[in-house]
Specification:
Layout: E1 14-25, E2 28-40, E3 45-49, H1 56-63, E4 72-81, E5 84-85, H2 91-97, E6 102-105, H3 109-112, H4 119-131, H5 135-148, H6 154-157, H7 167-179, E7 185-189, H8 197-214, E8 217-222, H9 225-231, E9 234-239, E10 242-248, H10 249-254, H11 259-266, E11 317-320, E12 323-325, H12 333-338
Parallel strand pairs: 3-8, 3-9, 6-7, 7-8
Antiparallel strand pairs: 1-2, 1-4, 4-5, 9-10, 10-12, 11-12
Length: 339
């Protein structure tokens, strides 16, 4: 595990405050993101974890206004980047930031890469649009980017189409496109989920090396705590559209405080033989979120729930240095008395 960034006090390159996103559906309004706040500093990797439906991807796509509207609507929040609030920018101004300032690597490159355009065209387009490079300059840079992400015979592959690449190679191409304009922030949305473990390990090593070379901030969305342990500086755990715990990676694994975080860790298999008990599962299902939770959203599935959990939704409370948790089990005595 990483020991955490030495630049923890550096000024945030991306700062999100109280983000709230809903989806208007035939069944009602789904409250998908419920007051999420976080920040990331240059060179830092923030891991965002939680099971499917926890709001991880919706949070990040909201920042770049990539959700279809309707049905999606951002109802509150701010996202500070480069002196702008991303949530209030006009589409034209936002498109200048997409790719150039904030890169996005999606989960499935086969749906993100256009099958009718060559890899070279898709790499060169943002270079010409955002950096104003000539066709020859963009082509040279495209070759450099493919070499950077470990594509062999890079110059010869520019005229190939996505279907001519393996899954791992397509994912590398996705990273090349996301990195093409040297963004200050890279958002990676479960980019290794569909890959076998060997290719996944190669992609993770690639990300580590690129982060060291380029010094960008990275937000890595995943449901895989094993991946987070190997690459993250800090971890943000989400459940039902809420942040339920955030901590430096070593602190989270050594001292998980939220019952949901502990339950996630209990589902991890051991590869060193230390674990002798059976793997646990998390019983029950996440809430449907047609109404914003008024109680702790994890309470119905929590082994430690008590009366207060069923009537009040806790906010994040400090339980250690840079360690916050939204759980009544950790409510300080003075807060209990005040409330």
């Amino acid at each position: 595990m990483n020991s955490g960034p030495a630049h923890q006090t550096a000024e945030a390159v991306l700062k999100v405050e109280d983000l709230r996103t809903v989806f208007h559906t035939q069944d009602g309004t789904v409250h998908a993101v419920n007051g999420v706040s976080f920040q990331v500093t240059p060179g830092e990797l923030l891991g965002v974890v939680g099971e499917s439906g926890s709001g991880k991807s919706v949070t990040m796509m909201s920042l770049m206004q990539l959700l279809p509207s309707p049905p999606a609507e951002i109802v509150a929040g701010k996202a500070h980047y480069g002196g702008h609030d991303l949530l209030t920018l006009e589409l034209g101004d936002l498109q200048e930031i997409r790719g150039a300032g904030i890169g996005f690597a999606f989960q499935d490159p086969m749906t993100s890469l256009n099958p009718v355009f060559t890899i070279g065209f898709q790499l060169m387009e943002p270079l010409r649009k955002h950096l104003g490079l000539s066709k020859a300059e963009a082509r040279k840079r495209a070759v450099e980017l493919l070499e950077l992400v470990g594509i062999p015979s890079a110059a010869d592959r520019l005229n190939d189409y996505p279907h001519q690449f393996s899954g791992g190679m397509r994912q590398r191409v996705m990273f090349a496109i996301a990195l093409s304009c040297d963004p200050k922030v890279l958002i990676a949305d479960e980019p290794t989920t569909a890959l076998d473990v060997t290719i996944q390990a190669q992609i993770l090593e690639l990300v580590k090396s690129l982060r060291e070379k380029l010094g960008m901030a990275i937000v890595w969305i995943t449901h895989d705590l094993g991946v987070v342990a190997g690459i993250a500086d800090r971890v943000m755990v989400m459940y039902a559209g809420h942040v339920v715990e955030e901590a430096p990676v070593h602190e989270l694994f050594d001292n998980p405080r939220h019952p949901y975080t502990r339950a996630l860790l209990e589902t991890l298999p051991s590869v060193d033989g230390e674990r002798t008990d059976r793997l646990r599962t998390i019983s029950g299902q996440p809430p449907h979120l047609l109404k914003p939770p008024t109680a702790c959203p994890f309470a119905p599935r929590c082994r430690n729930a008590f009366e207060r959990c069923l009537s009040e939704n806790p906010t994040l409370m400090p339980v250690g240095e840079a360690h916050n948790v939204a759980c009544w089990l950790d409510a300080p005595a003075e807060q209990e008395a005040a409330e």
